[in-house]
Amino acid sequence: MSVKRGAYSIWSLMRNALSYHENWQRAWRSPDPKPRYDVIIVGGGGHGLATAYYLAKEHGVRNIAVLEKGWLGGGNTGRNTTIIRSNYLQDASASLYEHSLKLWEGLSQELNFNVMFSQRGVMNLAHNEHDLRELSRRTRANWLNGIDSELLDTTGVKRFCPIINVSPESRYPVLGATVQRRGGTARHDAVAWGYARGADAMGVDIIQQCEVTGMRIEKGRITGVETTRGAIAAGKVAVVVAGHASVLAAMAGLRLPIESHPLQALVSEPIKPILDTVVMSSSVHVYVSQSDKGELVMGAGIDGYTSYAQRGSLPIIEEIMASTMELFPMFSRLKMMRKWGGIVDTSPDASPIISKMPVEGLYFNCGWGTGGFKATPGSGHVFAHTIARDRPHPLNQRHTFERFQSGELIEEHGAAAVAH
Ligand SMILES: Cc1cc2nc3c(=O)[nH]c(=O)nc-3n(C[C@H](O)[C@H](O)[C@H](O)COP(=O)(O)OP(=O)(O)OC[C@H]3O[C@@H](n4cnc5c(N)ncnc54)[C@H](O)[C@@H]3O)c2cc1C
């Protein structure tokens, strides 16, 4: 079943202006769950919704449900600092993140929904010899993979971002940086809403306030899930729940090599445009950008303890502020407005798991940790392929669950940077 829906355009804007914008069509339906689906996707974040979209669009699967325990994008999708880039070290990750970046470049047109993708460049700073060597090695690896990356010296950093403090007197002087100009930011909610609207138009049932509480497994094969709205049968079940991946795996009797940690961010009061790029520093430990509303968006490293509470501790906030002051002393009199936390699913090699599981018909997509927002389109795209064909897409062939047994890790702690 597909749902007829008018495209968003200048004409629809004008038409709806005549009725004071009170008659816009709902962006997606709110159906009751059916007794059975061909594919159930657990988790209504960006990754889950993108998976549903590409499953319907590219693989012709129509009888799909996305089950979300809260509201769409209420998890990490709606809590992150939206940094997008593809300059990872290993071939297996660089090609996956670059695939995603290419999808971002056409996403607003693809979805007929403005995801506000802004290619304002992402700069990674170096503050010591080790940073310089790591960034230089990664830049060369990026070139070999056809990914844009530039190395800057201190003068180049100042030219690219004039408000940054490059004084040699500072505690961690800026010695250089890399820039990926095609990187940038996007509007997080819009990504979830755009994919939801697109998937719903192809007949995908998006069911909010529906928590999966158990899995039905018979003779080694998944047959459905139990939820707060009753049992639902399924041919295949795909789990994309970020920080709750281990909880869902335990329902299927599996143990994942994942730790769930709080990751926090905060925003300042809005000010006039002052920062037109994204600045990240893994040594001073902060990442900063300015939103279209004018707020400075700042992110931290993870809180050291494991937790499922979507908040973090105050010392981390203090650290972000100290690091921000180090790089941008001119922000010292800004007031901070809000802070929040999400629960991120960190894996031992800082790379995701996009994989079939030992239970037939069960698939997991997790382990994106602090850096999965940038991968939303690519992750959904390759995960849909994995589910539909029951084998990995060439781009996620190495991102298996079994790599933690074989030792074929995809080590990305350097490129994962301060947090992502
Ligand atoms: C503060 C912060 C800053 C970040 N900054 C960046 C960044 O700048 N760049 C970047 O690339 N990444 C960043 N990330 C990471 C990024 O947000 C995530 O990797 C990504 O959004 C994960 O998307 P997702 O769709 O898998 O997860 P989520 O958006 O978390 O979606 C998972 C959904 O599953 C649902 N769920 C859980 N359990 C159940 C259940 N039992 N039944 C039904 N539904 C369930 C949850 O409610 C949730 O909505 C950041 C994360 C945080 C917290």
Automatic annotation (TrEMBL):
<dbReference type="InterPro" id="IPR006076">
    <property type="entry name" value="FAD-dep_OxRdtase"/>
</dbReference>
<keyword id="KW-0288">FMN</keyword>
<dbReference type="GO" id="GO:0046653">
    <property type="term" value="P:tetrahydrofolate metabolic process"/>
</dbReference>
<keyword id="KW-0963">Cytoplasm</keyword>
<dbReference type="GO" id="GO:0000166">
    <property type="term" value="F:nucleotide binding"/>
</dbReference>
<dbReference type="InterPro" id="IPR001763">
    <property type="entry name" value="Rhodanese-like_dom"/>
</dbReference>
<keyword id="KW-0547">Nucleotide-binding</keyword>
<keyword id="KW-0560">Oxidoreductase</keyword>
<dbReference type="InterPro" id="IPR006278">
    <property type="entry name" value="SoxB"/>
</dbReference>
<protein>
    <recommendedName>
        <fullName>Sarcosine oxidase subunit beta</fullName>
        <ecNumber>1.5.3.24</ecNumber>
    </recommendedName>
</protein>
<dbReference type="Pfam" id="PF01266">
    <property type="entry name" value="DAO"/>
</dbReference>
<feature type="domain" description="Rhodanese">
    <location>
        <begin position="39"/>
        <end position="83"/>
    </location>
</feature>
<comment type="similarity">
    <text>Belongs to the SoxB family.</text>
</comment>
<dbReference type="GO" id="GO:0008115">
    <property type="term" value="F:sarcosine oxidase activity"/>
</dbReference>
<keyword id="KW-0274">FAD</keyword>
<keyword id="KW-0285">Flavoprotein</keyword>
<dbReference type="GO" id="GO:0005737">
    <property type="term" value="C:cytoplasm"/>
</dbReference>
<dbReference type="InterPro" id="IPR036188">
    <property type="entry name" value="FAD/NAD-bd_sf"/>
</dbReference>
